[in-house]
Write a structure and sequence with these properties.
The protein is built from four helices and no strands. The chain is mostly helical and 121 residues long.
């Protein structure tokens, strides 16, 4: 496992734990969306970023695609939370706080690919 994956797993554990405590199901939903999409993004980096052909461009493509997936999932999560009458604030905080940590981890991974083409971080 890379240091990026270890950092992401630590943030995931913390986010899901705090999200579960934060509110009804809204906090857990927000933290879950942020965590699962970040882990999927890192898995995509590992699978497609290992190729000798343009690993940085592939990683940036994964970064953009996962951002769009997150956008759709956040909208769906907000719909679920509002229909259930749960706290939208808990959802938003539980999503965005770990999201920024995950964005830093993903950015670090992409930056590491850019420094040494063809080699994973």
């Amino acid at each position: 496992m890379t240091r990026h994956l270890v950092a992401a797993l630590l943030v995931t554990t913390l986010a899901l734990g705090l999200g579960a405590v934060a509110g009804d199901g809204a906090g857990f939903t927000g933290a879950g969306i942020a965590s699962l999409t970040a882990l999927a993004s890192l898995a995509g980096f590992r699978l497609l970023g290992r190729s000798a052909q343009k690993p940085l461009q592939r990683a940036l493509l994964i970064f953009v695609v996962m951002f769009l997936v997150r956008l759709v999932l956040v909208v769906l999560g907000l719909v679920r939370v509002t229909r259930a009458g749960e706290s939208v604030t808990a959802f938003v905080v539980a999503f965005f706080v770990p999201y920024f940590a995950f964005a830093a981890i993903e950015g670090s991974y992409v930056h590491a690919l850019g420094r040494s083409p063809g080699r994973t971080a």
